[in-house]
Write a structure and sequence with these properties.
The complex is a heterodimer of chains A (114) and B (476). Chain A is built from three helices and six strands. Chain A has 114 residues and is α+β, with helices and mostly antiparallel strands. In chain A, the strands form two sheets. Chain A has a four-stranded antiparallel sheet. In chain A, strands 1-6 form a two-stranded antiparallel ribbon. In chain A, a hairpin with a 4-residue loop joins β2 and β3. Chain B is α+β, with helices and mostly antiparallel strands. Chain B has two domains: 277 residues, no CATH class; 120 residues, Alpha-Beta Plaits (2-Layer Sandwich), CATH 3.30.70.360. Helix content of chain B is 30%, strand content 27%. A ten-stranded mixed sheet of chain B has the order 13-14-10-9-1-2-3-8-4-21, sandwiched between helices. In chain B, strands 5, 6, 7, 16, 17, 18, 19 and 20 form an eight-stranded antiparallel sheet that branches. The longest helix of chain B has 18 residues. Chain B starts with 20 loop residues before the first strand and ends with a helix. The chains are: A alpha+beta (114), B alpha+beta (476). Chains A and B meet through β2, β3, β4 and β5 of A and α10, β16, β17, β18 and β20 of B.
């Protein structure tokens, strides 16, 4: 086994408002093989998200695996509702950066799907 | 008007199946950026049965709703409405535009209706039926509802609505489902301008009127509402075409460089939503757990298995926003490594001076430290000291004079902050601009709630008129 950062495996890593009070995060894989690697590693879980963002579990409104899109998706309640004084990310579109370096264990011969 | 002179290539063209109904989706948010007309006219060549396009979003924050303004340029709104209206009238199909002018307030509906009249006159269009509806709800209406014991339920973790929430609100829109669109289409409208609406409703409504099932019609809307975001590679403002039958939904892009894949269509089903398996509308819930996505051909995805479960009690979503105060913003920048390492003390110094000058309440002041955690605040896991930071300072207060003064005090006192071992004694920060700027007022979302109604049309006022005829009458 070796470890690779999430941004090398995932095709899409993004965040966006889900309504005015929540931000939703999507990690989308190129194929089912990579989706399964991430899912089985448990590297993206409710507890790892809490640790990464420094939040309690009740900050997470949803955490789902969405197989048709080979995706893992979680949603956080916002600290400020979108665009309130103090909010610096009205669309919630730049909250995903810390996900890039989550380390995912993969087989030694793993290569990104072309 | 630009028009595609030659027919699009065979790659784009698919022969429409008999007994199906197709809707063209040219833009996920009309006005936010203009339609790319190349793929739009590829779509027009495909002879769709309707064109639908939503113009609204609450992504733009609370300011436009609270202040009743649009965040999109008038020219871009006019541009898109002109292309859509002319194409739809030429083909003799309905043109449906929802959530007029970003917020879907009455003034924005009126603006879009005026644009339709102006375009019709400019191009001498033959008379057509225009339908439009308002979806604003007054604060008095909501107060009365509460006074009669009505419960306005909070969404997404919000508490139920209180009178204090209503007091903080300047403007409210109710989010329409399919009902006003279905009614206006049944009344024979050729062009519809909607107040605030669920995006999906614009696409579902014409399919419902033509007898297609709720199960598929709502998902049809869901997949089409953001135009080319359901295709890949990533491209915005390009047109896609959806086709609904009694058995399935097909979706395919009108830009040659794009294709719809299982991944792109399924991926879009979860975009901007917390739950990819279900979605709520006025009147029911779309259940997507058993959706089946298939690659129908190289560029087309087929979806089956969505279900619509009608609600036992009707609830309509309310969006409300209110002004918090006038707002000024300023910027400072820091390169001194020692000052950067003690930035919290620098901000505390400034904050203390603001408190001394203005007291503890009656205003708000915010410092966002870009380079450290400006975007993410306490969610930011990176704790290392950067080599350079920029701080945006916001002052919010009841009057512009006070907001300016709060902001200026906060900004200048960052310059004078005293740290024990500071080397740079000629000023602790740099001013990229030694000024503060007035922005639009500071506002916040006061309502993200649902209200119970007896009739799904209760909060929406419908109007119809004939465009073009009045002009003829005047001419005679």
């Amino acid at each position: 086994m070796k470890r690779v950062p999430l941004h090398e495996i995932a095709k899409t890593i993004r965040s966006k408002n889900a309504g005015v009070d929540r931000i939703t995060f999507d990690v989308i894989c190129r194929d089912h093989r990579d989706f399964d690697l991430i899912r089985r590693s448990n590297a993206i879980s409710r507890s790892s998200i809490c640790e990464l963002f420094g939040v309690n579990d009740d900050r997470i409104s949803d955490f789902v695996e969405f197989e048709p899109a080979n995706a893992i998706k979680f949603t956080l309640y916002r600290r400020y509702s979108s665009g309130s004084p103090g909010d610096m990310d009205i669309f919630g579109s730049q909250q995903y950066g810390p996900l890039f370096d989550i380390q995912i264990p993969v087989p030694d011969d793993w290569k990104p799907t072309q | 008007m630009p028009d595609s002179k030659s027919a699009p290539s065979d790659t784009i063209t698919r022969r429409k199946r008999t007994d199906s109904f197709s809707v063209l989706s040219p833009n996920g948010h009309l006005g936010f950026a203009p339609i790319k007309t190349g793929s739009f006219y590829n779509g027009v060549h495909a002879k769709p049965d309707a064109i639908a396009c939503d113009s609204g979003s609450c992504d733009i924050g609370p300011v436009p709703l609270a202040c009743d303004i649009s965040s999109s340029p008038y020219e871009w709104q006019y541009h898109d409405i002109e292309h859509i209206l002319l194409a739809a009238r030429k083909l003799g199909i309905p043109a449906i535009i929802g959530s007029a002018g970003d917020t879907g307030t009455n003034s924005q509906v009126d603006k879009f209706v005026a644009i339709v009249h102006e375009i019709a006159e400019k191009h001498g269009l033959a008379p057509f039926r225009l339908g439009y509806f308002y979806s604003e709800v007054t604060t008095d209406f909501v107060r009365t509802h509460l006074a009669h014991g009505g419960v306005i339920e909070g969404l997404d973790g919000r508490s139920n609505l209180t009178l204090a929430d209503v007091d903080a609100t300047d403007r409210i829109v109710a989010v329409a489902g399919v009902h006003p669109y279905v009614e206006l289409l049944r009344q024979g409208c050729d062009v519809i301008i909607g107040g605030r609406s669920s995006d999906s409703a614009l696409f579902a409504a014409p399919a419902l009127v033509r007898g297609y099932s709720e199960d598929l019609a709502y998902f049809f809307g869901k997949v089409l509402e953001c135009s080319s975001f359901c295709a890949e590679p990533y491209a915005g403002k390009e047109t896609v075409l959806g086709e609904i039958s009694h058995e399935d939904i097909l979706v395919y892009p009108m830009l040659e460089a794009q294709r719809c894949t299982i991944s792109s269509v399924a991926g879009h089903a979860m975009y901007e939503r917390s739950n990819p398996f279900e979605e709520y509308y006025a009147g029911g819930r779309l259940e997507m757990r058993d959706c089946k996505y298939e690659q129908y051909d190289e560029r087309t995805v087929r979806v089956t298995g969505s279900r619509f479960i009608p609600a036992d009690d009707l609830r309509v979503k309310l969006e409300g926003a209110g002004k918090v105060g006038e707002r000024f913003v300023g910027l400072v920048a820091i390169r001194d490594p020692y000052t950067i390492s003690r930035i919290d003390e620098v901000i505390a110094w400034s904050r203390n001076h603001v408190t001394e000058a203005f007291g503890k309440t009656g205003y708000e002041v915010y410092y966002s430290v870009f380079g450290k955690n400006g975007l993410m605040g306490e969610w930011e896991p990176v704790r290392t000291n950067p080599h350079e930071i920029c701080i945006t300072v916001q002052g919010v207060a009841p009057t512009a004079v006070m907001a300016e003064s709060v902001c200026m005090t906060a900004m200048r006192q960052l310059f004078y902050a005293r740290l024990p071992d500071v080397k740079g004694t000629a000023g602790g920060v740099a001013f990229p601009f030694d000024e503060v700027w007035q922005t639009k007022p500071a506002c916040r979302w006061t309502m993200n709630h649902t209200i119970g109604v007896k009739d799904p049309m209760e909060l929406f006022t419908l109007h119809t008129s004939t465009v073009g005829q009045e002009i003829e009458e005047i001419a005679q």
